[in-house]
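Z., the sequence and structure:
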Amino acid sequence: MTFSTFPPAMPPPACPHCAGQHPTPATVPVMAQLHLCSQRLPAAVGDVAKLGELGRQLSHCYIELDTALLSGVMDMRAAHTGLQALITLLERRDEPLLFSSEEALALLEPIQQRLQRGLEHVNGLL
């Protein structure tokens, strides 16, 4: 049983306007980036350039958030489907199991990897 792989979420580009005033986006989880942007909103009121830049940053954060959530959910759903298939196979067998624990682990390993990858996508947002 094999599963296709999905590319990881692309890291956001570095902010060209911050001049080091806040951590680089690659080091800050998306939810924290959104919080930082929301904190900078009151200072940008009336400044079209700052509002435009914040709008671009917010847009990028939401794209990154959507990408990571979608990838995470797809990986977890694939792991769930794999587990369901394996459970169905085990429930509907008519004969005793004819495979070793190593073979059982080999069947479960791709499922565990897919679940782990999905959780990493979601946990990376926080």
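The helical segments are 30-44, 48-91, 101-123. Residues 25-123 form one domain.

Let me know what you think.
H.
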